[in-house]
Amino acid sequence: MENFRITSDGIGTFRRDGFLIVRGLLDETEGQRLSDIARADRELAESAYGRKDAGGVPVMLSVRNELSDDIYSAIARSRRVVETMAALLGDEVYHYHHKLILKEPRVGGAWEWHQDYGYWYNNGCLLPDMGSCLIAIDRATKENGCLQVLRGSHLIGRINHGTTGDQTGADPERVAVALDRFERVHVELEAGDAVFFHANLLHRSDQNRSDDPRWALICCYNTKRNDPYCESRHPRYSPLEIWPDERVLEFSPPAT
C-alpha cells in the first residue's frame, strides 16, 4: 500500500477491539514476490517444524529471532509495519521475532485459543505492551483455517495458559466464558492484507480442511519500555533500523 499511514481512527479501533485489519498492506506485486520467495526457500522448508493441536494434527511453522538480508526482514523492518505498530502500542518498538505459518491443504493443523502474552509473559516481559502483524501470503478464509479473534478480549488481561497438544493454550474455563461475552470474528484476508493485533487478544485458527494453502508471515514486536528483565529465547531491546517500504522489492526468488 503506497504511503500507508495509520490514522487516529485506526488507533482507536485497535485499542477498542484489540486488532486492526489493513487491506492491501502489500500490493499485488509485493505479495506475489513474498509468495514466490517463500515457496522457493529451501532454508525455510528445512527449518520448519510442527506443533500438534489438541487433535494431534501439526501446524508447520518457522521462527526467526534474527533479522537478515531477506524479504521477511525487509517487511519486518518496513516503515509501514514498524511505524504502525509503534503508533498502536504508543511507544518505540523493536523486533521480537518473526515467523512463517505454513498451513498446507488438508493437513494444516489448528492453533488452540491463546494469547501471545500467555507465552511472552514467561520471557521476562512485565507488560502486555506487545503486538503482532500477520500478513497473508495466501488468501485466508474460514475454509482454510483463517485467524479467529474475540473482539475486545485483550481487555480481559492475561489468562493463565497450559499445555494443549504440543501447544500452549489459554485456560479453557476462561475461554468458554469469553466466547459467551465477546464477538468471534473470522479474519478473512486476501493475499497482501494484514491484521495488527494486541498480545492479549484471544485468537485461534481451525485446521485447513480445504484444497487451498494458507501461508502467512507474522512479525512480532515488543515496546522499548517493556525491555525484558531476563534473557530468553527472544531478544531484549535494541534499536530497530527502519527500512523504506520500497526495499521489499529488492529481493527476488532464486534462479531456477
TrEMBL record:
Its keywords, alphabetically, are: Oxidoreductase
Tell me which Pfam families the record gives: PhyH
Q: What is its EC number?
A: 1.14.11.35
Top-level division of the source organism's lineage: Bacteria
Q: Entry's InterPro entries?
A: Phytyl_CoA_dOase-like
User: Care to name a GO molecular-function term for this sequence?
Assistant: iron ion binding
Please identify the protein, giving its name as recorded: 1-deoxypentalenic acid 11-beta-hydroxylase
